Amino acid sequence: MKKRKIIFEIFDSLFIMILCFGTLLTAMLMKDSSIRLSYTIHMKTFLIVLVGLFVYFAFVLNNSEKGLKKTIEHLYYQVVNE
To answer: What's the superkingdom here (predicted)?
Structure first.
């Protein structure tokens, strides 16, 4: 059950990232045809992005369930005490 939750959390995060990437890619491709742009990937920058993604996923996977439990407890106790 725990493994399945992790898979869904990773899918949710990647889905949002893919939507953002698609939006940015669409904006880049809808440029004027007279403008010539070329994109290069620098290995140093690419590795920094990969490390950042790893740290992000480690943080999200570690804290998402804790935050959800705190939110549910807060809302539950707020409704019960009213």
So the answer is: Bacteria
